[in-house]
């Protein structure tokens, strides 16, 4: 709804009613699984200095000449194996829409038309600048930017925030802004994780010998340079263990998705699941607490590649515990963090 400001002359341009924006952000997704769509997406992702911080002169010739000539075919096939054919979109896109729909319902019930909820992706579409522009044009004079990463990392939370701030630079009238802090130790988030584990264990034909908490990896060098991600992942696992009331040997932290020649955070999930099988833990469960929604790294990498590594080493029963996605407990946890960070703007 647009109207002339009070006390303004009759010919004053109409302006939209002021509201607060809540902008949900996730990593991103290609538009489809074709070579050129995958190449555009991977080029944007792998050109991000927060993700791969090698000098441009060193990295770009390798990326544009070698990596992007080959990897789009492999990545396209991986995406195709999990693609939501009915909606013609990636599972991450489908799940993000479901999350935003529930958050919109909850926030509108609490704040009415004073809040506008939308989502964007760091890479691909809908782009962060396009959605920020839409929110500003709709009358959002304040925006809470919410990267859905429980644990902070420069390559996830920080680069999402960077893109949000760059989008604000293009606005003549910038809205006031806040960013959602990481919530790796939030009680409601830990409770939601624990409930998902309990449901999976109750439904399993045979109880797993060990739960592997597999987090997306980072180069080990990033930890030495001050990135807190590794420590926050370890704390999430510890709090989950305590919430479940388990002994130390029933749960462990690992890291997946290693890329390039550097040493990354260890132990590597793909190697650790094989070690577990070889040492006699023939029944394992894997959960991915760093991912707010199932995506290529969980549906394809964990549930296919990592599962295959476990079974090849003699593992017998592999249980993948899905991400929290749009589970009501997860939405309630996110609602709690969002409303906490809207205080002073909306109460």
Overview of this protein structure:
With 347 residues, this protein is of the alpha/beta class. The protein folds into two domains: 2-181 and 330-341, Rossmann fold (3-Layer(aba) Sandwich); 187-321, Rossmann fold. It is 48% helix and 17% strand. The protein is built from eleven helices and ten strands. The chain has helices at 35-46, 56-82, 91-111, 128-137, 154-169, 187-203, 220-224, 229-244, 269-278, 296-312, 328-341, and strands at residues 2-3, 15-16, 19-29, 115-124, 140-147, 176-179, 210-216, 251-256, 283-287, 317-321. The chain is globular, with a radius of gyration of 22 Å. The two termini are 22 Å apart.
Q: Please report the number of helical segments.
A: 11
Order of helices and strands: EEEHHHEHEHEHEHHEHEHEH
The third-level CATH topology of the largest domain is: Rossmann fold
Q: Report helical residue fraction.
A: 40-55%
Q: Any idea of the CATH class of the largest domain? A: Alpha Beta
**Average pLDDT level:** 95
Percentage beta strand:
15-25%
Query: Order of strands across the widest beta sheet?
Result: 4-3-5-6
How many domains, as an integer?
2
Shape: globular
What is the level-2 CATH architecture name of the largest domain? 3-Layer(aba) Sandwich
- Helix vs. strand class: alpha/beta
| N-to-C CA distance | 22 Å
The number of strands is 10
The largest pleated sheet is described as: 4 strands, parallel
* Rg over CA atoms: 22 Å
Low-confidence stretches: none
């Amino acid at each position: 709804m647009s109207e002339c400001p009070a006390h303004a002359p009759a010919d004053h341009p109409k302006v939209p009613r002021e509201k607060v924006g809540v902008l949900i952000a996730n990593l991103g997704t290609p538009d489809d699984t074709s070579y050129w769509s995958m190449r555009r997406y991977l080029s944007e992702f792998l050109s991000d200095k927060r993700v791969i911080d090698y000098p441009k002169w060193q990295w770009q010739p390798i990326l544009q000449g070698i990596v992007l000539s080959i990897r789009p075919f492999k990545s396209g096939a991986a995406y195709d194996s999990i693609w939501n054919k009915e909606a013609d979109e990636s599972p991450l896109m489908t799940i993000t829409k479901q999350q935003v729909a529930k958050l919109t319902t909850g926030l509108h019930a609490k704040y009415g038309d004073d809040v506008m909820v939308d989502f964007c992706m760091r890479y691909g579409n809908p782009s962060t600048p396009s959605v920020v522009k839409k929110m500003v044009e709709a009358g959002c004079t304040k925006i809470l930017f919410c990267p859905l990463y429980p644990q902070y990392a420069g390559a996830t939370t920080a680069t999402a925030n960077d893109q949000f701030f760059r989008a604000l630079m293009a606005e003549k009238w910038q809205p006031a802004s806040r960013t959602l802090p990481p919530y790796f130790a939030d009680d409601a988030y830990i409770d939601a994780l624990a409930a998902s584990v309990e449901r999976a264990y109750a439904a399993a034909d045979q109880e797993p010998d060990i739960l592997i908490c597999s987090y997306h990896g980072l180069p080990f060098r990033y930890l030495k340079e001050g990135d807190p991600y590794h420590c926050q992942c370890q704390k999430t696992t510890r709090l989950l263990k305590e919430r479940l009331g388990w002994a130390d040997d029933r749960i462990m932290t690992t890291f997946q998705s290693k890329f390039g020649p550097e040493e990354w955070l260890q132990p590597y999930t793909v190697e650790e699941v094989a070690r577990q099988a070889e040492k006699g833990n023939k029944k394992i469960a894997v959960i991915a607490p760093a991912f707010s929604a199932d995506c290529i790294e969980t549906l394809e990498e964990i549930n296919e590649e990592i599962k295959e590594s476990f079974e090849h080493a003699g593992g017998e029963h592999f249980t993948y515990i899905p991400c929290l996605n749009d589970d009501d407990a997860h939405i309630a946890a996110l609602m709690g963090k969002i409303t906490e960070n809207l205080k002073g703007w909306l109460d």
